[in-house]
């Protein structure tokens, strides 16, 4: 019988009929310090190939219980507050373009194009969506995409795309797409928090004041690449991993992991050097092993990679980042193993590899990353032998997203299946992980889902 501290969450399958009522550009409500033809520098951390994406998130808000519907006009309040917050966050009202060497920059055309806001309606109530504990790919219609939009397109796109969908019960959702080239997760929370606080107060609120200053991450002259940067290396796909994930339609599986399980796992995962580990180290190691075992990856000597983002803000001393910096300050940590060593080894060994990869991200590693991208700018995402774990548990996403209608009943991503080699750790519910539980979301072919569930529940805990 499954231990009570792990629970698989079953996602409702449904169709959400959405009718778009209006689309309009949102430009800064006051003059901004750029003129037509100006451009802004993006660092190589902003311009890494993995950042050339939009990060979609959705936020659900219940109706005002006092009257059954919101007394304030939702779309108009969100539009006005976005226009206000785009004054200090004016780079988000520009567009991206490539320069002659393929590097991206923010530019401002003859007419300021601004963000895009979409107003939509649906003929169902929020209650019909079912459980809000975990992201559901069926919520995809709540995020606006252009007709025939190319995957990973960022050039000449609005850098903020917001869809407000009104439900029959009086509740609404905010589907948001932010360009990752402009902000990482912490930066996105800062922008979202400013927008929400401005909407709630009815006047501009920016604490802290946003700081652009991407030049702080300019490459050295000449560049000095001091690490191998396996996170960027091309690995030929000679395993069955890609075929299992990309040529069969994967399913999104979500699990609620209680604090008790995390603590027990962390105790069992302690590396043999007695230097300890974090809960993330233990969870990442356990998920990676369970995923590879469930997929039954062959051949056994095939080289695998686990990558994950590390926030390097606190590691920067020369110089320290200014408060309010909202650009990308993440490095991609990477550890490697062949299939046999990973699935036949012990959990503490894998945890040690994860811990070492995390600790290897220093200020010098970040500078080396900037220089590596300058010397050999990757042109496409590399998926060979890779699982990427993204940690959202430290984001105060529920607190940041109170626009005046209370905290959302769900805040986070929607659909991982377009990039099935990504796993996400999410906080559970509006407490922003106050009870210590997390939601783990991962993609698997249907044929491997049960094996993964069993490996997750009992596999490494008995070693």
UniProtKB/TrEMBL annotation:
> GO molecular-function annotation terms?
acyltransferase activity, transferring groups other than amino-acyl groups
Protein name stated in the entry:
Omega-hydroxypalmitate O-feruloyl transferase
InterPro entries attached here?
CAT-like_dom_sf, Plant_Fungal_Acyltransferase
Q: Could you say which protein family the record assigns here? A: Belongs to the plant acyltransferase family.
């Amino acid at each position: 019988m499954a231990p009570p501290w792990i629970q698989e969450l079953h996602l409702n399958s449904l169709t959400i009929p959405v009718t778009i009522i209006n689309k309009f550009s949102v430009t800064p409500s006051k003059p901004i310090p750029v003129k037509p033809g100006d451009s802004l520098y993006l660092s190589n951390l902003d311009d890494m190939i993995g950042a050339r994406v939009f990060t979609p998130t959705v936020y659900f808000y219940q109706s005002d219980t006092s009257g059954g519907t919101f007394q304030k006009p939702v779309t108009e309040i969100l539009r006005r507050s976005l226009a206000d917050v785009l004054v200090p966050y004016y780079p988000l009202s520009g567009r991206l373009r490539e320069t002659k060497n393929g590097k991206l920059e923010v530019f401002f055309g003859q007419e300021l194009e601004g963000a895009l806001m979409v107003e939509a309606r649906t003929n169902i109530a929020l209650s019909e969506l079912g459980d809000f504990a975990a992201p559901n790919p069926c919520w995809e219609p709540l995020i606006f995409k252009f007709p025939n939009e190319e995957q990973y397109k960022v050039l000449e796109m609005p850098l903020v795309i917001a869809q407000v969908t009104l439900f029959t019960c009086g509740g609404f959702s905010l589907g948001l797409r932010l360009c990752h080239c402009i902000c990482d997760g912490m930066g996105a929370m800062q922008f979202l928090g400013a927008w929400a606080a401005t909407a709630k107060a009815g006047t501009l609120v920016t604490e802290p004041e946003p700081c652009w200053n991407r030049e702080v991450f300019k490459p050295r002259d000449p560049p000095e690449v001091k690490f191998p940067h396996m996170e960027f290396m091309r690995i030929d796909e000679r395993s069955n991993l890609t075929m299992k994930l990309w040529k069969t339609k994967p399913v999104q599986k979500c699990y609620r992991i209680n604090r008790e399980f995390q603590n027990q796992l962390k105790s069992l995962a302690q590396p043999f050097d007695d230097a300890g580990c974090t809960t993330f180290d233990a969870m990442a190691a356990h998920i990676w092993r369970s995923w590879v075992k469930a997929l039954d990856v062959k051949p056994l000597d095939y080289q695998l990679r686990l990558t994950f983002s590390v926030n390097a803000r606190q590691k920067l001393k020369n110089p320290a980042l200014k408060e309010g910096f909202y650009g990308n300050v993440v490095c991609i940590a990477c550890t490697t193993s062949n299939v046999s060593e990973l699935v036949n080894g012990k959990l503490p060994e894998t945890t040690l590899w994860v811990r070492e990869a995390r600790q290897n991200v220093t200020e010098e590693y970040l500078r080396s990353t900037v220089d590596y991208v300058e010397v050999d700018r990757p042109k496409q995402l590399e998926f060979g032998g890779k699982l990427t774990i993204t940690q959202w548990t430290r984001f105060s996403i529920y607190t940041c997203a109170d626009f005046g209608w209370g905290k959302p009943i769900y805040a986070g991503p929607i659909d991982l299946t377009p990039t099935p080699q990504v796993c996400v750790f999410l906080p559970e519910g509006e407490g922003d992980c106050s009870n210590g539980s997390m939601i783990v979301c991962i993609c698997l072919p249907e044929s491997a889902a049960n094996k993964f569930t069993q490996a997750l529940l009992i596999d490494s805990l008995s070693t």
